[in-house]
Design goal:
Shape: globular
Organism: Pyrobaculum arsenaticum (strain DSM 13514 / JCM 11321 / PZ6)
Oligomer: single chain
CATH class of the largest domain: Alpha Beta
Bound molecules: 5,10-Methenyltetrahydrofolate
Function: Catalyzes the oxidation of 5,10-methylenetetrahydrofolate to 5,10-methenyltetrahydrofolate and then the hydrolysis of 5,10-methenyltetrahydrofolate to 10-formyltetrahydrofolate.
Number of domains: 2
Helix content: 40-55%
Catalytic activity: (6R)-5,10-methylene-5,6,7,8-tetrahydrofolate + NADP(+) = (6R)-5,10-methenyltetrahydrofolate + NADPH; (6R)-5,10-methenyltetrahydrofolate + H2O = (6R)-10-formyltetrahydrofolate + H(+)
CATH architecture of the largest domain: 3-Layer(aba) Sandwich
CATH superfamily of the largest domain: NAD(P)-binding Rossmann-like Domain
Strand order of the largest sheet: 1-11-8-7-5-6
Keywords: Amino-acid biosynthesis, Histidine biosynthesis, Hydrolase, Methionine biosynthesis, Multifunctional enzyme, NADP, One-carbon metabolism, Oxidoreductase, Purine biosynthesis
Pathway: One-carbon metabolism; tetrahydrofolate interconversion
């Protein structure tokens, strides 16, 4: 029998925790405000990312904070990087904005590195600026650091369900900057044997078949993508494996979700499994709230100290 790994508990706890801290920050005159930037004009991505952005904004408002969503997908491609840089610089300067998310993926013609390099590291809710990213290679503290939201959310789920990572064979499918890459580094530090598979891997089946834990973070469901589609099904895994499904896309025409993991066939073999709805997505949003509170304190320290003028 499969045990479902649900994110609701983490999400509820994070909201309560964030609500308390919003009150404390208000005492020093700071209201957490999250700015989310959407740059992608691809219809699948726009539909998907709009959905995620509005859910995150709703969470922030529910705990007493504020949220703004900036959509830049109508700016002509040749000007989009420049406009995004101008927006990021203005968000960096504004004292009322305490956290920024540049929603991924950004379109291929946008200079993503330049955008993350321009973002103030203390407002970086995703821990994706060059310096924040590098810190992961040193060491991390799951409870106290601003860490990439989805990887940290997944580690919190493992902890909550008592799933051991030390010495386990873990396969991460996907090597994206948002999930696959940071998560594989974190798992390595937790003493797992980590294998990272991606579009150019020569073979995937034998690695997936022998894994104790499979984390699928691809986001190319066969219903939507013809080249390099990916879906994890029950035949591909061994009995008793732990499976975490991360990737998913909204079909812009039907509005329907399509996910990395075939829930039904995988549930027949897995010991633990995240549901496609109510699993990793909620754990991610829990972490967005926690990270926003932390960036808000970082900004509060800067803003408050800049108001103190000495003799
Ligand atoms: N810079 C950046 N930071 C991110 O954190 C980021 C990103 N880019 N790009 C896309 C992914 C994806 N992501 C999700 C957020 C919420 C749900 C979520 O709440 N899902 C609900 C269901 C959604 C629904 O009801 O439509 C659930 O799992 O139950 C899922 C996925 C954040 N991402």
């Amino acid at each position: 029998m499969v045990t479902w790994i649900r994110g609701e508990g983490l999400h509820r706890q994070a909201k309560e925790w964030a609500r308390e801290h919003v009150k404390r920050l208000e005492e020093v005159g700071i209201t957490p405000k999250l700015a989310i930037i959407l740059l992608n004009d691809d219809p699948v991505e726009l539909a998907t990312q709009r959905r995620f952005a509005s859910l995150k904004a709703r969470d922030v408002r529910e705990v007493g904070g504020e949220a703004e969503i900036y959509e830049l997908h109508d700016v002509p491609p040749e000007r989009r990087t420049k406009e995004a840089l101008r927006l990021i610089e203005s968000l960096n300067k504004r004292d009322d904005v305490t956290g920024v998310i540049i929603q991924k993926p950004v379109p291929p013609f946008v200079d993503e590195r330049a955008l993350f390099a321009a973002l103030s590291p203390e407002k970086d809710v995703d821990a994706l600026t060059p310096d924040n990213k590098k810190r992961l290679l040193d060491r991390f503290d799951l409870d106290n650091d601003v860490l990439p939201c989805t990887p940290a959310g997944i580690l919190e789920l493992f902890r909550m369900y008592g799933i051991e990572i030390r010495g386990k064979d873990v396969v991460v499918v996907g090597k994206g900057e948002l999930v696959g890459k940071p998560l594989s580094v974190m798992l390595m530090q937790l003493d797992a044997t980590v294998t990272v598979l991606h579009a150019l891997s020569k073979e995937r089946e034998p690695y997936v078949k022998r894994a104790d834990i499979v984390i699928s973070a691809v986001g190319r469901p066969p219903e939507i993508y013809r080249d390099n589609p990916w879906r994890l099904t029950g035949e591909m895994i061994k009995e008793g494996v732990v499976v975490v499904g991360v990737g998913g896309k909204v079909d812009p025409i039907s509005g329907k979700w399509h996910f990395d993991v075939d829930e039904k066939s995988v549930a027949e073999k897995a010991s633990y499994l995240t549901p496609n709805i109510g699993g990793v997505g909620l754990a991610t949003r829990a972490r967005v709230l926690k990270n926003l509170i932390r960036t808000s304190y970082q900004v509060a320290r800067l803003v408050v100290s800049s108001r103190i003028v000495g003799p």
